[in-house]
Amino acid sequence: MTINQLLQKLESTSPILQANFGIERESLRVDRQGQLAQTPHPSCLGARSFHPYIQTDFCEFQMELITPVAKSTTEARRLLGAITDVTGRSISQDEVLWPLSMPPRIKAQEIQVAQLENEFERHYRNYLAEKYGTKLQAISGIHYNMELGKDLVEALFQESDQTDMIAFKNALYLKLAQNYLRYRWVITYLFGAAPIAEQGFFDQEVPEPVRSFRNSDHGYVNKEEIQVSFDNLEDYVSDIETYIANGDLIAEKEFYSAVRFRGQKANRSFLDKGITYLEFRNFDLNPFERIGISQTTMDTVHLLILAFLWLDSPENVDQVLAQGHALNEKIALSHPLEPLPDQAMTETKDIIKALDQLVQHFGLGDYHQDLVKQVKATFADPKQTLSAQLLPYIKDKSLADFALNKALAYQDYDWTAHYALKGYEEMELSTQMLLFDAIQKGINFDILDEQDQFLKLWHKDHVEYVKNGNMTSKDNYVVPLAMANKTVTKKILADAGFPVPAGDEFTSLEQGLAYYPLIKNKQIVVKPKSTNFGLGISIFQEPASLENYQKALEIAFAEDTAVLVEEFIPGTEYRFFILDGHCEAVLLRVAANVVGDGKHTIRELVAHKNANPLRGHDHRSPLEIIALGDIEQLMLAQQGYTPDDILPDGEKVNLRRNSNISTGGDSIDVTETMDSSYQELAAAMATSMGAWACGVDLIIPDETQIASKENPHCTCIELNFNPSMYMHTYCAEGPGQAITPKILDKLFPELVALKHQN
Amino acid sequence: MTINQLLQKLESTSPILQANFGIERESLRVDRQGQLAQTPHPSCLGARSFHPYIQTDFCEFQMELITPVAKSTTEARRLLGAITDVTGRSISQDEVLWPLSMPPRIKAQEIQVAQLENEFERHYRNYLAEKYGTKLQAISGIHYNMELGKDLVEALFQESDQTDMIAFKNALYLKLAQNYLRYRWVITYLFGAAPIAEQGFFDQEVPEPVRSFRNSDHGYVNKEEIQVSFDNLEDYVSDIETYIANGDLIAEKEFYSAVRFRGQKANRSFLDKGITYLEFRNFDLNPFERIGISQTTMDTVHLLILAFLWLDSPENVDQVLAQGHALNEKIALSHPLEPLPDQAMTETKDIIKALDQLVQHFGLGDYHQDLVKQVKATFADPKQTLSAQLLPYIKDKSLADFALNKALAYQDYDWTAHYALKGYEEMELSTQMLLFDAIQKGINFDILDEQDQFLKLWHKDHVEYVKNGNMTSKDNYVVPLAMANKTVTKKILADAGFPVPAGDEFTSLEQGLAYYPLIKNKQIVVKPKSTNFGLGISIFQEPASLENYQKALEIAFAEDTAVLVEEFIPGTEYRFFILDGHCEAVLLRVAANVVGDGKHTIRELVAHKNANPLRGHDHRSPLEIIALGDIEQLMLAQQGYTPDDILPDGEKVNLRRNSNISTGGDSIDVTETMDSSYQELAAAMATSMGAWACGVDLIIPDETQIASKENPHCTCIELNFNPSMYMHTYCAEGPGQAITPKILDKLFPELVALKHQN
Q1: d(Cα A211, Cα A385) in Å, to the nearest integer?
Q2: pTM value?
Q3: How many CB atoms are located within 10 Å of the residue B395 CB?
Q4: In terms of Cα–Cα distance, which of B187, B219, B267 is closest to B101?
Q5: Which of A71, A475, A478 should one mutate to test binding to chain B, selecting the residue with the greatest count of B CBs within 10 A?
């Protein structure tokens, strides 16, 4: 049976669209004037010797962004979007990524080969430079990798009478590759986006504009004498081996083709171990897309690939493929508005028929039906091709201005919401920040559970799991459990000689009342043992009457079966972020407030403060928008103000009593001003608990006093496991402290050592 | 000001009763015939070189049980009760603890000194044996340790004009000791319980019965020439030092007194570093109490001690104390029913007055008032003394039968509910078991939070925290978090090549429905992602119609925002308990059931099964009582039975569908029959997660198949952090496997090495 027949035998509910995808995108670093960057690859990125996501291709300034394997085109683009975000903020703010396949105006001598550590790789690039010329190597593009879904292949295999799965898959991929090469003009026609070459790129005159120089023989192609057969896999393998043996090619990867077989280290292994996936290499960068390829392109190509599987195999493969090559050359070098040549129009009928049959047989829905309609429409109307859409932007045979404007706009976008990871904004901020750093450092990542903020990170065989940004293997199991229990925490700290509020825990009203004599002259706090949302807390800054004390107990007992009565500690509360025995940051949080300037109303001051890009809603930004709702207005009224009053110069009004960030408070990074004696004391507390990542809340009445274990001049009111990190990094005031990179450095110390290599 | 005046100046709400307590109890091991045990100290107990709770005193068979410091008399007795429980089940089941101070009939040559590792200690005991005689050393008793409360002492100090707290406390304790010795006859009178000596104990004739041989000069007292002054602390210290210098005493602890100062290694240190607490040594074992001292005795003595603080200091201390010694001697050797001599009656007035004033001044409640009333009544009526209560049991000048009966009854009691720790039955079973083992092994413990099952364990400087029995520092923080998330767990296991149910997770009905084609011909389970209480689960052993599948999704989505659809795995479910990479136990749980014998009704069979002492209510016993409620009766009806039907021989009926222990199911220990290949595979799964303590749930369709990674013949449906331990140890069928001792051995490997020393 033919593959087409197998496909037709599948049930309509078979997972025809099941596949894995990966995208590689090359893009040149240029400066803000559109000149090739002469700077080295950013040193803040993990070394290229191991970085799985951000490499350089041929040149030092030619970045290559590589996604991990994704289960859908959407996910692949999402991953590429995140890697792009990291790349955009890792390169200098004076640099942008060139959005076109064809480079800006360049001189050959400007092109420096990538300064890689690996000697073979450097040698290889020098060889390519000499053989093909450096300018050619600067052409960039997108490689679209695809693996047919496991269940889909299994279903086809079951329908067949084959017994060897590896051979069966090889046959599928061979057919796919054959038809892809045969019909590669379709990709060139629909998605070609290299209509011009900037002045000086070509030594000779070339017709312009075209659809795609890159996809023509003007692009980087092997020398004409390199002819590899796709008739069968054995020939493919041995043809390339022969070229290498003869010195016509230096390595298997020097064979440039619109499609390559992938999945084994050496081609010969395909024969017994099998092809795993295909690499489609003929996609020009789409400058209208920040990541270089659109969702509809990805999905249209997916359908086309399936159509190529559906269509009959060519007979006389190499002959037909040669014809396909010629047709592609013609279409690639045609004016974008030129209609398809007759030969191509004839082939569109088969292709459209295959697409329609696929949609019909497998009951594909509106989205895919619309994609097919668009393909049909574009076949008939060249104005709808990508290259045609670029025509209006060509000025004086140049796309430089257009390209630079796009690049600058995309760079600006990367720098907005710089606390977030583009595409992952629904995850917790601290996890977004950690993912950003992981991608930057070149640590492999997989999001095991997005809702749970559960990550798998690894470098070679070293695997770490991280939840909520800092719940890691570096902490042991029982210490966070101890920190979750206030009574246990206080006992442990007190036993170790650290200052905690005096007090006791009670499990009944009677017990609580019996304590009254010991606290009747003191400032106290009465609270439920587990204070969720701050409910049920009573604070007596004046000693409490027995009656009020009882009321406070009752209020607390309504929230929990255990209640704590502690001395009230006056002073200012600070959060110390302790990591691995060292204080990394100290934060002061103050209630939502504005400070007057004698000119503006409170309403205007609030609006102005809310304009800070760090302020947003619902914990997806480091600070919250300050509201002017009932609570805030009541608070203002209690201070004698309405929102429309002008606030005197220098006068501060609080809009909330509590200092939570979530109700519009300010976070103030005081790391550099907080005396180190407090930082060391807080670190010692975390260490005595045995905690690796810990938020220590200290009340400090007078910061000017030097703290010591014997005379702490502070009290620890709480230890927090899984402490927030973003609030220390992106603050309303103060420089902010980076913490997530340190988490990763400590999880993967081996990478810190590698950092200085290239 | 005198101490009495300071007390009178305190507010009535002062914490007069605040104090720390510790109890030491000596008790002889005897066999079930009442003969001294000739066996060594139990080897299952941690070595005496470090054991904080269970030691031997003079003789190898003379056990000494020592509580840690407690904040109340109730807590001290609770701790002693637990240590007694452990002791009772650590000695041979052929042995019991002699409940009297005076030993059973013994021959001197039977008495072997304690075979301790410490050379000085062995030498010391041999010296004592020679000097005082071994029989005397076999007398046992209770030492009552007490430290006045910190806030109480602080309050008294504040009222005084003293500036040196150490000197102030020394003065308090010196006064206390003086009055205690002066009035020690009170303790002898009220609580003496050594009325006879068994035949052969004394070489000479002695009058019998008396109140307390132990508290007379017939007990173990120093030689007459040892006279230490209590006039002032300096004299106390130097008198003892002089005796040691002269060789009249070999060590400071050889000074026997009804009261000793404690808290420093050497007496001289009391002078500058201070006395911390007092040791009252004159309490005979109370044979009517399993732990040797009653709650009312503890609390009465507490009040008496406070009265001794209240009463004036003696003038001419040593002279008054000598008179007190003589009075005590007289009262100790009087017949139990003899009224107090006049001198004593006179002193009772002062004592009762002091007690009344204490009660009045500090507003002590009914409980303490009743204690004082009882003291008064007993002063007037010797029949109410403890020694008088023993009179009826003396037969032929012997208490041997009485003592042996008590000992056997107490031993029986220690062996009931042997899965629990007496006094701590409200804690979770696994924690009770861990505490039992910790006490047995000699690991220090402190319950930091009883409701939270939070323990602190330590040996020397090595501290471990344990929650819920096996949440320890040996697990890292993130692995249990991974195990709590079924999706993450499945991904990690699947990535590592272990067999998990195929399936997927959905966060919307649409997503779930789109999955239907892939599962429509399969047996599936639809369940909420977090299955609390087993709600919302649908099992389709026949493939589901789309309609029913949708209903199942809706049911699951009512319980959680994420739903799992997995293949249904047929087979039997087993729980594998993995610890540190090794499988310690395998458990099969089956639904509540009875098996017929052709004679008894189902009701009778249930009653018989419920008679198993392991069955109780509410998770405080390893198995649950099987109910015959509506659910069970419905289940019976569905099988055609009522509770009053006779069940045919060999016929099994289930009373519940689910196999939970909590609804009366049986736990069956199959560790020894489950093929090791499954045990190793389960252990490998836990190890690949990185878990130290883990419960692995495997479905095994056919146990007779050998499992391997490549052909597992089983599926892992869940990994459990904090897995239950008690259910593996105390089973309805099968031997049961001890797990908690292994937890401790792994937390404290240094103790395993020490185990074979003595």
Answers
A1: 9
A2: 0.89
A3: 10
A4: B219
A5: A478
